[in-house]
Design goal:
- With 382 residues, the protein is low in regular secondary structure.
- It has a domain of 62 residues.
- Helices cover 3% and strands 8% of the residues.
- The chain contains one helix and nine strands; from the N terminus they run E-H-E-E-E-E-E-E-E-E.
- It has a three-stranded antiparallel beta sheet, with no helix packed on it.
- A hairpin with a 5-residue loop joins strand 7 and strand 8.
- The N and C termini lie far apart (137 Å).
């Protein structure tokens, strides 16, 4: 025979209830209560005087619990809740760990956490484990994937940033008597070595914009537009096609404004080349060693018009603000030309410079030399 037991509040005395349960043969000699039907408790609590309590801990493989609850509280603030199997939370949020849920966040990790000091590291969020790919996982195998679809509000307003991930500066309170060696918003500890291409940070497509300064401590090989090769510290490669937004196209362009500071009296330059060159240790010759080496541009002429000037190096103009002004100024060493001719535009008599001579030609088809005193001499070629 099955019974449905209904306990109304706390009004029944233990002795009276024991007598009823014994008569119904649902209370054994050990005091254990066994009910074949359903149990309904109309009071506010089921309590125990034991520090360990098991509730529906055997047989049942599907347990429906607190289905009508709109607020479910479990454990104390210092307790540990352990779930042995997988956890599925069907609600889309807001959720929170460590604090109250915020209606602007699907999942928030909040509160102040203090490390136990059991190791040498402390983390706000720590994800480890082994991810093992299955047969067919050929697109990617990753530790984490971020692939949200973002839909803006329907409103007449602007959004400052829309991004898959946003990292704020860590607000660091430094209580050390030592130093923080590296402080970073994002720190990548290393790169894999098992791929055909290995990188600590790999941007598969799209532009990369850096609003701050860039420091590259690695000595190479580096590459832009192509793969790095071991014979180049920095290689700019690939095929670049101009967008046609102006009247020129450049493979490499420096257009910065360089502002000198007090004490910059040796030089202020747009670019400074000062590499130290060390030969290999070998019984062989090196054809050329130079601070800069320029090859002829391999020009494919698809024009129906003409290329007015084709040059390996073209200097468009010279400054005028110096005591001495030059398009090319060689402060030391000889100037050697192994082949070709030296072509000069016909000019008028230039302004003399003390202690310097000038060689030029004029419209009368004669070659002239001007000494440092400004005296012009016709060069006679015999």
């Amino acid at each position: 025979m099955s019974y449905t037991a209904i306990v109304e509040g706390d009004s029944a005395t233990p002795t009276f209830m024991n007598a009823i349960f014994t008569e119904l043969d649902i209370l054994d000699s050990n005091g254990d209560l066994s009910i074949a039907g359903a149990l309904a408790v109309n009071g506010a609590a089921i309590t125990t005087d034991d520090t360990t309590f098991a509730l529906i801990n055997t047989t049942a493989t599907t347990v429906n619990f607190a289905g009508a609850a709109t607020a479910l509280n479990m454990g104390t603030a210092l307790g540990i809740t352990t779930i042995a199997g997988d956890l599925v939370v069907s609600g889309a949020g807001p959720h929170a760990i460590g604090g109250a849920a915020n209606s602007t966040s699907r999942l928030g990790l909040l509160g102040s956490f203090t490390s136990s000091g059991a190791g040498t590291t402390a983390h706000g969020t720590h994800q480890t484990g082994v991810i093992t790919g299955a047969d067919g996982d050929t697109a990617w195998v990753v530790g984490q994937r971020w692939a949200n679809t973002i839909v803006t509000q329907t409103a007449t307003e602007n959004i400052g940033i829309v991004a898959q991930a946003k990292f704020e500066e860590p607000v660091i309170t430094d209580n050390l008597t030592g130093d923080v060696t590296i402080a970073a918003t994002v720190h990548i500890a290393g790169a894999p070595t098992e791929g055909e291409v290995n990188a600590a940070l790999y941007v598969a497509s799209g532009a990369t914009f850096l609003g701050g300064n860039l420091t590259v401590a690695g000595t190479g090989s580096h590459a832009i537009g192509t793969n790095a090769v071991s014979s180049h510290q920095l290689l700019l490669g690939g095929t670049f096609t101009s967008a046609g937004a102006s009247t020129f196209a450049n493979g490499f362009s420096i257009t910065a404004t360089i502002v000198g500071a007090s004490g910059d009296t040796t030089r202020i330059a747009g670019s400074h080349f000062t590499a130290a060159l060390t030969t290999q240790t070998a019984t062989e010759n090196v054809a050329v060693m130079a601070q800069a080496y320029f090859d002829e541009p391999t020009i494919i002429d698809n024009l129906t018009g003409d290329i007015t000037i084709a040059a390996t190096v073209y200097v468009s103009s010279a400054p005028t603000e110096g005591e001495a002004n030059a398009a090319i100024y060689v402060s030391g060493g000889d100037v050697s030309t192994d082949g070709g001719t030296y072509t000069m535009l016909e000019i008028t008599t230039p302004t003399a410079r003390t202690n310097y001579g000038k060689l030029y030609c004029k419209a009368d088809n004669a070659l002239y030399f001007q000494d440092g005193a400004g005296v012009e001499h016709t060069v006679t070629i015999s």
